[in-house]
Design a protein that fits this description.
With about 260 residues, this protein is mainly beta. The protein has a single domain, classed as Porin. It is about 10% helix and about 70% strand. Strands 1, 2, 3, 4, 5, 6, 7, 8, 9, 10, 11 and 12 form a twelve-stranded mixed sheet that branches. A hairpin with a 6-residue loop joins strand 2 and strand 3.
């Protein structure tokens, strides 16, 4: 146990210290609070339903004012579940709403989008370790903003592939340490809006656009609840300029979840 704990703590420190070195670069930086509240109801051994609202609040912006909501989120849909020994497969099939308040001096607007998510999650448990691969196939089908002037432009399709790998270590029956990395790669661009703005909150760009490193804990609470505070180091890249680094963002990320049986 001591050896495994030491390894995980060392990995977390390495990730955080590495993030700090990268943050020393002269790039725009932001800091945000990010919260999710998730409820999962198991309706059979193989199916569940979930709803999850979220909020991102900007507390620092090196290029402008902060202290305001930056993004509203809402997920809803079913989850397919299949267990085979130490391996668990979950496939959420979710609707995803994204809202972006735009509040700047002389400008007050609101962008939003409607998206479909297919999320294969494969977990393998061995001893105190759990290794997870999560793929998010993020399909944007509608984007409303100040750039897309017609309904034909707002209705479209782009596909973003998000690939996350996570290692978790149970230092106690009720406490896990977690470390993860996630890549964002645009796969399909929308043809109707290619000559206009691309990248969130618009339709996706083709190529590598973002990387996240997560480090934190999962606290297992009574009554099927859990609380997961994490630090996220996020780098933004421009696929049109050889994945050049364009922005650094820091998150304090907090997820509260509750699960219960409905059968």
């Amino acid at each position: 146990m001591r050896y495994g704990t030491t390894l995980v703590v060392a990995a977390v420190l390495w990730a955080v210290l590495g993030a700090g070195d990268a943050a020393a670069k002269d790039e725009p930086q932001e800091a945000r609070l990010w919260t999710y509240a998730q409820a999962v109801g198991l309706i059979s051994p193989s199916w569940a339903v979930s709803v999850m609202p979220g909020l991102r609040w900007e507390v620092y912006d090196s290029e402008g004012d902060a202290g305001q909501a930056a993004m509203y989120e809402f997920f809803a849909g079913p989850i397919f579940i299949q267990k085979l020994g130490p391996i668990t497969l979950k496939i959420p099939l979710w609707y995803y709403y994204m809202g972006f308040p735009i509040r700047k001096p002389g400008k007050d607007d609101y962008f939003d989008s409607h998206n479909l998510e297919v999320i294969p999650i494969l977990s393998f448990r061995t001893g105190r370790w759990t290794f997870t691969s999560r793929t998010i196939l993020h399909s944007k089908v509608y984007a409303r903003n100040a750039v897309f002037k017609t309904e034909q432009q707002r209705r479209g399709y782009s596909l973003l592939w998000r690939q996350l790998f996570r290692a978790s270590y149970a230092i106690l029956p009720t406490l896990d340490l977690t470390l993860a990395e996630e890549l964002f790669i645009g796969v399909v661009e929308d043809g109707e809006t290619n000559g206009l703005a691309k990248g969130e909150p618009f339709f996706e760009k083709h190529g590598f656009s973002m990387n996240r490193v997560y480090a934190g804990v999962v606290v297992k609470l009574p009554a099927g609840m859990s609380l997961s505070p994490q630090y996220i180091f996020e780098t933004h890249h421009d696929p049109d300029q050889g994945s050049k680094l364009t922005k650094i963002r820091h998150y304090l990320f907090l997820t509260w979840s509750v699960g219960f049986k409905l059968f």
